[in-house]
Structure to design on (569 residues):
């Protein structure tokens, strides 16, 4: 049992506490902490690639009585993705001096990373709730960072929606505990699989409630209404970090539906996927239509994020190893591309450098070759040939609408003459270029990456 | 006992949902607090109702399950903190924006 597993949770927590004690060094500490998190995550990814999933018993209490952390390939992948994104976002924050406005930006940023790492690593449903709350309460602070009436109003709605979601989460947990007597995920997988028929209705209710909560986090229709206002009003760097927040919803759906409620469990069967698929397809179309109709670049990007969640959930709803592998590839791509566009949108000025970056990233988001968006959507299409008549048109039409939306935004932004503005205040191009480089690497290295992802997906689905 | 607890949860939830759907942030906060009370009672009931017994395995008397009580404690702390954040945001948006509404625009 390696103690490194708990480092992604502990490191940001300690750094955040140090930042509160030493506010003068906050920038330095935050950079060190985020870089350290990235290094630890990569190390965990490398070790878990060669070994079976590892369990870490907190306080050495035996599972299922104590609390456990679990490191498998999926958790390690999400950790690396989050830490990498955090590095780019932090670069942008330091370059634009967003952290100058209040003293607590970096502490909140580190608590956000702690909550995210914990949510990926936990092997216990109640701790998933606790880490969700940690990352949410940090995100509330980050979202209203800088203040202003409109931002606070949007923040109020965001907090209220998530409080309602947390209540539903607790109801689901209480139902699961009442029926099975455990909240450990691995233990639940065993107990849910051979539940007496009399208890199955209750566990089905709990499963649907859980999916509702994760769908709220993942902005699935009809629970997407909080997202456009929140993302459009948040500071651009924070919105970029939030690109991974919706993916936590997708991660939680993937984790619970592969481990606790797989489609061959008699209690739930294909019920969850039967709900998820139509919701995902409607999300995709509504997100794309919203991007076409929205006013202003931040709102367009927010709707693009909704559409990408629709695509992602469409792949997850197939519940096959091939589709899950495609979903994971698309998850990496959509996090990077969505964040890159949000970082670009901050004080965007029509100059050559930002135009090239916008063009390349928008092509990737819409799913045109040559970048990873095309490959991701292609894999999802290939994985859904069984329902090609339903899924293919929706994904293709959605991609076309996104292309139109971005073409419109691009021509508005870059072909409208503006008075020459101060280049000092232009958006820094380094962070989005870094994310774009990561997407290029994801495209060039698509072979090894998909091999690694398909092994991950097969182990998630319990297939050899 | 069951009837009392079940109806308490039901009444708290329905009043909470009604208030949370109103257009002012004050009613919204009250509603969400009532919903969190209902959820805490519901969590408590997940360990079965066994009043008056110690949470110790292997004693002479029947036992009560301590885990839901620990869960309720965590949930109370979290919902308390969240409500405080929500109150601060509502105050801020009222003082800056000049109105107590929740809706967009």
């Amino acid at each position: 049992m390696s103690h490194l597993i708990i480092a992604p949770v502990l490191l940001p927590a300690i750094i955040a506490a140090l930042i509160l004690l030493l506010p003068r060094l906050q920038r330095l500490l935050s950079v060190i902490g985020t870089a350290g998190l990235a290094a630890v995550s990569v190390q965990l990814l490398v070790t878990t690639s060669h070994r079976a999933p590892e369990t870490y018993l907190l306080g050495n209490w035996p599972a299922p009585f104590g609390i456990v952390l679990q490191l498998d390939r999926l958790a390690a992948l999400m950790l690396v993705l989050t830490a990498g994104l955090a590095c780019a976002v932090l670069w942008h924050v330091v370059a634009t001096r967003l952290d100058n406005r209040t003293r607590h930006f970096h502490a909140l940023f580190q608590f956000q990373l702690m909550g995210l790492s914990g949510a990926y690593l936990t092997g216990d449903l109640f701790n998933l709730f606790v880490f969700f709350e940690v990352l949410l309460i940090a995100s509330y602070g980050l979202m209203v960072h800088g203040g202003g009436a409109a931002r606070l109003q949007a923040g109020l709605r965001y907090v209220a929606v998530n409080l309602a979601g947390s209540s539903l989460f607790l109801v689901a947990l209480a139902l699961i505990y009442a029926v099975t007597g455990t909240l450990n995920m691995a233990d639940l997988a065993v107990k849910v699989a051979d539940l007496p028929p009399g208890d199955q209705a209750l566990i089905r209710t709990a499963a649907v409630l859980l999916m509702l909560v994760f769908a709220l986090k993942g902005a699935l229709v009809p629970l997407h209404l909080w997202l456009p206002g929140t993302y459009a009003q948040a500071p651009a760097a924070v919105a970029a970090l939030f690109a991974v927040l919706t993916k936590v919803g997708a991660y939680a759906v993937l984790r619970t539906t592969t481990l606790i409620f797989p489609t061959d469990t008699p209690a739930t069967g294909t019920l969850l996927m039967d709900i998820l698929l139509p919701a995902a397809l409607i999300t995709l179309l509504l997100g794309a239509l919203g991007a076409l109709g929205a006013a202003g670049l931040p709102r367009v990007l927010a709707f693009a994020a909704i559409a990408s969640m629709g695509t992602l959930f469409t792949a997850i709803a197939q519940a096959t190893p091939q589709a899950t592998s495609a979903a994971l590839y698309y998850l990496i791509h959509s996090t990077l591309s969505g964040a890159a566009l949000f970082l670009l949108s901050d004080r965007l000025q029509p100059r050559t450098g930002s135009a090239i970056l916008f063009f390349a990233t928008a092509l990737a988001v819409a799913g045109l070759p040559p970048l990873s968006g095309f490959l991701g959507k292609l894999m999802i299409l290939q994985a859904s040939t069984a329902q090609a008549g339903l899924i293919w048109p929706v994904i293709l039409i959605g991609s076309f609408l996104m292309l139109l939306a971005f073409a419109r935004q691009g021509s508005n932004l870059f072909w409208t003459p503006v008075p020459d503005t101060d280049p000092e205040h232009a958006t820094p191009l380094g962070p989005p270029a870094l994310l774009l480089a990561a997407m290029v690497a994801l495209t060039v290295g698509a072979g090894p990456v998909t091999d690694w992802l398909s092994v991950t997906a097969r182990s998630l689905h319990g297939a050899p | 006992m069951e009837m009392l607890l079940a109806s308490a949860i039901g009444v708290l939830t329905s009043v909470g949902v009604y208030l949370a759907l109103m257009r002012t942030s004050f009613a919204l906060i009250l509603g969400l607090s009532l919903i969190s009370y209902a959820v805490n009672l519901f969590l408590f009931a997940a360990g079965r109702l066994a009043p008056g017994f110690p949470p110790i395995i292997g004693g002479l008397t029947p036992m009560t399950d301590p885990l839901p009580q620990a869960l309720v404690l965590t949930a109370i702390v979290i919902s308390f903190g969240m409500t405080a954040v929500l109150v601060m945001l509502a105050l801020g948006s009222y003082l800056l924006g000049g109105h107590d509404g929740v809706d967009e625009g």
